[in-house]
Write a structure and sequence with these properties.
Blueprint lengths: L1 H23 L2 E4 L4 H13 L4 E5 L6 H14 L4 E3 L3 H11 L8 H19 L5 E3 L16 E4 L4 E4 L7 H10 L51 E2 L1
Parallel strand pairs: 1-2, 1-4, 2-3, 4-6
Antiparallel strand pairs: 5-6, 5-7
Subcellular location: Cytoplasm
Enzyme class: oxidoreductase
Function: Catalyzes the formation of sulfite from adenosine 5'-phosphosulfate (APS) using thioredoxin as an electron donor.
Length: 231
Amino acid sequence: MSEQILQQKTEQLHNLLSEIRRDYSPVALANSFGAEDMVLTDMIARHYPEIGIFTLDTGRLPQETYDLMQQVKQHYGVTIQAYFPDATAVEDYVTQHGPNGFYESVALRKRCCYIRKVEPLKRALIGKKAWITGMRREQSTTRETLEVSVFDAAHGIHKFNPLCDWTEKEVWDYIKQHDVPYNALHDRFYPSIGCAPCTRAITPGEDIRSGRWWWENPDSKECGLHTNEQK
């Protein structure tokens, strides 16, 4: 039964990506190289090359993420556009608050996320009619009401979450079935991977997002990339 459900969801994903390509070009996948994004990368690279792929290189990603970036390029032969934070903004932040100032307060953490993620995303989405993410409802309390399609008011374009109703098991079953490369940190109990200093391994039974910004309240653990959305 689980194989049948995965097959149905895979077909639905094919249909949705086909519709997105047809109706929302130019459109791109925001790839953070987590397991979910690798499912989407695999399908886009093999079947929908007209859909672009970009990544936000914060400058503080784990080495394993950079290794996977290189592996994806070699495995699929695709071009992934990298967007970096503004150098002056990073320099000013580190000068004022230190390289790890984000541990001191939620405000400083969100400011760091804004500089390293939110502002580069704005540049990445210029000229796009829509963007695609790998977010799922299971991932955190802040994503429980996630919809497949929303209007991203912050950027004035449409946003799609094609895997929003996929389970973690379904994601990994797809990866195994299609021999999709994935981040080596997943094998070390890192279900959710972001910047190295803000990500840690979790123990069995913990929430899958508990390794991200673990010093903060789980109800507010987002980086600012996914806000101001309307159904």
